[in-house]
Sequence to fold (181 residues):
Amino acid sequence: MAVLKVELYGSPVLREKARPVDAITPDIQTLLDDMVDTMRHAQGAGLAANQVGVPLRVIIVDVGAHVGREDLAFLINPEWVYQEGSALMEEGCLSIPQIFEKVPRPSKVKVRALDRQGKPFELEGEEFLCKALCHEMDHLDGVLFIDRLTPLKRDLVKRKIKKLIREGEWDDPYPLSKAAG
Ligand code: NI
Fold:
């Protein structure tokens, strides 16, 4: 298991449309384990494989993060079953450090995916889980949460990002030296 480098906004792999996984191999299971380590190290609540430089349709979501318990979902080749309603919820992204904005999303969704053993399952989410699933599913299509803001808001955010980069705030957002233990 290993903590991987998190790709930051501006990295081309974040804009790639991720490819489906052909088979659940040991390599894929290692990728999942490494993604968990990486997400926890960076204190995130979800992660898509392209955020660690692997353009495959693999996401993990810590569905218990918002209530302070650990409850991981591994989703391989996830697809929408449905999306309904609308909600405005604040989001952040490990690939866009220190930026948090309210993003319009559905209020209830359901996805179908393969778990880490390759078994199909469905996951329905509202509130936090709905937001997390929408956010991570977007990553697989090369879409970032700031793309869903109004053009005005997006411009403001882009300026804020430039400033953070200029000030060195993005140089090493998840330093290994800060790893617990
Ligand atoms: Ni993200």
